[in-house]
Design brief:
single chain; alpha+beta; Complement Module, domain 1; two-stranded antiparallel ribbon
């Protein structure tokens, strides 16, 4: 009888709120809903500069300084 032992769960499976890596990459993937938190736009402070990330009516994202 050939039985397979299941592999242990991955970090991603254990922590569903953890960002998923891009296919073939180590970069985390954050859903836009996580960043926007139900809003149409959010401000992002990056290296002392303020950026605005907003969603359009067509569902696209715009990042402006």
């Amino acid at each position: 009888m050939n039985t397979q032992v299941p592999s242990p769960p991955t970090d991603r499976e254990l922590h569903s709120d953890a960002p998923a890596p891009l296919a073939g990459s180590e970069l985390p993937v954050l859903p836009s809903a996580t960043l926007l938190r139900g809003q149409k736009a959010v401000a992002i402070d990056h290296n002392g500069s303020l950026y605005r990330l907003q969603t359009t009516r067509q569902g696209k994202l715009i990042l402006t300084k």
